[in-house]
Amino acid sequence: MDHSPAQCCADCGGVAGEGVSLKVCKACMVARYCSPTCQRNHWPTHKKECKQRAAELHDEALFDDPLPKEDCPICFLPMPVKLISCMSLPPATITSVPIANFAEANEEVAKLDTGHYYSCCGKSICGGCVCSCIKSGNGDNCPFCNADRSGKTDEERVEEMMKRVEANDAGSVYQLANDYHHGKLGLLQDRARAMELWTRAAKLGSSQAHFQLGSTYDAGGELKKSKFHYEAATMAGHEAARNNLGYIEYKSGNVERAVKHLMIAASAGHHQAMHNLLVAFNHGSTSRATIDATLTAYNDSCAEMRSDARDAAIHVYIASIGVR
User: Fold this and answer.
1) pLDDT over 70 percentage in the chain
2) Where would I find the beta strands (DSSP E) of the chain?
3) Where do the structural domains in the chain lie, given as residue ranges?
């Protein structure tokens, strides 16, 4: 009786079910082996096919439809990477991306994080909901669990966070890393400790931690490590990481891959990716049809992330730092 390759050991031909248990090659997910010995023996023959198929599987995952954004746990609107993506400005056109133009001219505003982390419940709340909570008279209370935050010392906030860190909460580990990186909450600035914690958070599934590691290695010229973490963040739906991958691919001459990354990131509402795609179009690297379709998706994504509360939060911040 003939048996399919999926039923036989690729090296010795042992058939599954006849006292033989087969395990699939974890790289290519095609070849099967009855033992580690057979897998080692078959490697010289299998190597080329395995690496080619593994690369194909990797690209399928990398360019697959991105995971949906995390929602704010209060307003349930998608959380962009930066709050400025929610700003009410005219829609992007073939010649202009207003949010990107504003971000370039107002770097401090453009760095405004979408989420505000609360160590009491471990939740990240969008700036719009935080702003609404303050306006409603709740003061320093947590917008999600209503815990009283007034009078909390830095030491008490770190103690709260550490309970969640010890429970391997990825968001809390990521936030503690940020606090070490910037020397906040009374912690001495310790970037080596921040890298350790970002690495831990990344292993726990934090796309933000992967992005921070990618950015750090990128700044240090360690491209291989940078791409690894950018790709991990990208496959988890982090559009800023995908934008950076697009830029790296473009600089490396891989224009087709770059455009694919930029299209996906821009369609998710990432303003810098939309700007970069327009630059690529002006250089003749992509078509008008691609731009038109991506512009429509970009404007739709931005509209989904906007609310009066988020717009108000941005303008409160702009007023506080005197931006005009």
Assistant:
1) 97
2) 23-24, 32-33, 115-118, 123-126
3) 1-37, 83-319
